[in-house]
Design brief:
CATH class of the largest domain: Mainly Beta
Strand content: 35-45%
CATH topology of the largest domain: Jelly Rolls
Largest sheet: 4 strands, antiparallel
Number of domains: 2
């Protein structure tokens, strides 16, 4: 037993001597190591935060492209406006009125009716009575049958949530014969005296596709 204790004490002394014999790092070396660690961390942080100059240029070009596209759409659009339908329903005698100021009698234009309906709209189609009046007081009356959904009840329009918007081509590739104000009146032509489910009616006048080049 005594010999084992002596051996253990010798091993402990040898281990302590080896530990004490290891060279200790000087303060300057520790400082260098600390700087190295800080430099590595700093480099990582810099990499995360910094955007490469080429990427900045790409983002700038993308942003300019969007602005130019939006500006192009604005130039092609002569008129665009929505009228909100009464939340209690669209009455037969309620008229959505649009006044379009026209100065170009040479260009070719499309006139589009935009229909924004809710999911609870009960029909597949929507009849509209449209009256247009020229600056010289010439009137034209049209009945527009707008198909809003397929036979399975899926809306043709696009939208988010419970709202769907569908553009309907009303006049295709027309020329306005005279300058001035063109007056449009739109009424619902369904059998109900108060039609539910239609949220907004819009009118959009733009250059025809052939004129946009």
């Amino acid at each position: 037993m005594r010999s084992r204790r002596r051996n253990n004490l010798r091993l402990t002394k040898i281990q302590n001597a080896r530990r004490n014999s290891r060279p200790k790092k000087k303060a300057a070396d520790l400082a260098k190591d600390a700087e190295t660690v800080i430099a590595i961390v700093g480099a990582r942080l810099t990499t995360i935060k910094t955007i490469h100059p080429m990427k900045r240029i790409d983002i700038l070009f993308a942003f300019l492209f969007v602005l130019l596209a939006a500006a192009g759409c604005t130039k092609k659009t002569v008129f665009s406006e929505y009228k909100t339908i009464d939340k209690n329903g669209w009455k037969k005698d309620s008229v959505a009125v649009f006044d379009v100021a026209v100065s170009d009698t040479i260009g070719v234009y499309d006139v589009i009716v935009n229909i924004r309906n809710k999911n609870e709209y009960p029909y597949q189609n929507l009849y509209l009575f449209i009256t247009s009046t020229s600056p010289s007081d010439a009137k034209a009356c049209d009945t527009l049958n707008c198909i809003l959904a397929d036979n399975q009840g899926h809306w043709y329009g696009s939208g988010i949530g419970s709202m769907s918007t569908l553009p309907i081509l009303y006049m295709s590739k027309i020329k306005f014969p005279e300058q001035g104000n063109y007056h449009f009146e739109i009424k619902q032509g369904m059998r109900e005296s108060v039609l539910q489910g239609v949220s907004d009616i819009g009118l959009h006048v733009k250059l025809a596709e052939d004129e946009q080049k």
